[in-house]
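Example: QacE family quaternary ammonium compound efflux SMR transporter.
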Amino acid sequence: MNWTYVWLIVAIGFEVVGTSALKETAGFTRLVPTIVSLVAYGFAFYFLALSLRVLPMGVVYAIWSGAGIVFISAIGWIVFRQVLDAPALIGMALIIAGVAVINLFSNSVAH
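Written out as structure tokens, the predicted fold is:
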């Protein structure tokens, strides 16, 4: 099993939790969501750093940010009832396609 991708998935998970909690901090005026957000971001960056030991920085960041955008948008839609119009959905589909192209065809990912 390649732990590098596990660490990256865990980093993405913590980033999504941190960003979701960030919405609830009300500008860092609410203590519990603020603590959740800061702790989650700390873990996100720790696990992101672990994946950077093996994978190239540009590839890691593309996957991390792309997946984060899609997951946060989905949470915004489901939990916070935020509207996603057709251009937003098309853009996210292109992000997913870009991450897939990197992982499937780029020699940069080989390690």
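The chain has one domain: 3-109.
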